[in-house]
Structures are given as C-alpha cells and as structure tokens.
Amino acid sequence: MGHEIAWAEVRRRDRRALEALCRQWMPTVLQWCCRLGGRGLDAEGAAQEVFIVLLDRLDSLDGPHVVGSWLFSATRRVLAQHRRRVWVRRWLPGVSIDHIVGGSNPERRSSARSDLAQVQDIVSGLPPRLAEVWVLVQIEQRTVPEIVDLTGIPEGTLRTRLRRARQLFLAEARSRGLVAPSVAEVP
Fold first, then answer.
1. pLDDT tens digits for range 99-146
2. Range(s) within the chain of domains with CATH label 1.10.10.10
3. I need a labelling partner for 30 at 20 to 30 A (CA). Which of 8, 46, 133, 142 fits?
4. Which of 175, 81, 80 is nearest to 129 (CA)?
5. Can you tell me the distance from the alpha carbon of 91 to that of 137, in angstroms, rounded to the nearest whole number?
6. Integer Cα distance of 147 and 135 in angstroms
7. Where in the chain is the domain with CATH 1.10.1740.10?
8. Average pLDDT over residues 19-25
9. Contacts of 38 (CB under 8 A, 6+ apart)
C-alpha cells in the first residue's frame, strides 16, 4: 500500500498523517462499497461515512496492523445501514445503476451495462456474508489468507462460504443466460 504512515502521528491526529491514511485506504474502501453495496447505494457517501467512523474511533485501534480488518468491519456495518435505507428508496422513481463501461460501440456498451447490472443483481441477492467473500475473491482477486486476516473469518468457514457463494452465483447466472449450461460447478 505504499509508504508507511507514522502511527504515532495518526494517533496525535496530525492532519498530514490522517490525510495520508485516508488517501492510502480510500480506494480500497470505495471499491468495497461499490462492490458490496448493491443497487441504488451511494458508494462514495458510504465510503466517506466509513472514514468519519474511523476518525471518530481512531483511539480504539491498536495500531496500523489492524486498520485493514477494522475498515472492512466498519464498511460492513455502514453498508448494512445504507442497504436498509436503499430498501426504502428502491420504490422511488429514478433509481438506476450508474456503471461506466468503456468502448465506442453503443450496442456493446449497452450489452455490457446489462450484464454488469445482472451481475450486481445476483451479488446483491446473495446473503451478505456470501456476497462479501465472493467479491473479495472473484472481483478483488484476494487470497484466502488475506481474506482471513481482513475479515477474521476462520479459513474453513471462509472456504465453505465461498463455495456456497460460487454455487448460488453460478446457478443464478445460468438461469439468466449469463453462463453457458456446460460451465462446470466450482469445487
């Protein structure tokens, strides 16, 4: 994640150290919010809220080695709160997925947007604990040891959740025609 941030300066709430800490972790937290938040969730707003909580509870952190797992846990809690709010907002007109899809072919962009929306729908439909591990492995390409460290989930439990998440995702993707029926189940 780049250069080391002086933790003593962070604990003293030195402005530069706090800015460096936020700059270091904001891309990761924002990705978690985008990928785990679901349809209609304001990912940037949720990420900002995570950092407000971090700054409010900074004194409770034991050191830089716990920042990643602490931020992931805080992101989970903030997203759960946001999902409850989104549930109400989903009945309001004008809610849409805002994905940026590259390419110059309008038909291709439209198809890609549709596929992305369906993938997000499938992930949003997974139980949150399964969606978390699926996103961390399938989207962020994190290793099992990284996820164990980040989430605190025992490795066996993590592997069970990942297997179940992959099964549910694949079954739903097949039913939507996103995956060919011949694609084998993931062990």
1. 333 444 556 556 666 777 778 888 888 998 999 998 888 878 888 999
2. 105-176
3. 8
4. 80
5. 32
6. 11
7. 1-92
8. 94
9. 83, 86, 120, 123, 124
Identity of the residue numbered 91: W
The residue among 116 and 31 whose pLDDT is bigger is 31
Band of pLDDT at residue 94, cut at 50, 70 and 90: very low
How many residues are there in the chain?
187
Right CATH number for 1-92 from 1.10.1740.10, 3.40.50.720, 1.10.10.60, 3.30.565.40?
1.10.1740.10
Exposure on the CB side of residue 178, measured as CA atoms within 13 A = 19
Domain with residues 105-176, CATH architecture: Orthogonal Bundle (1.10)
Between CA 38 and CA 117 the distance in angstroms is 10
pLDDT of residue 177: 81
Is residue 120 within 8 Å of residue 35, measured between CB atoms? no
Q: How many CB atoms lie within 10 A of CB 59?
A: 7
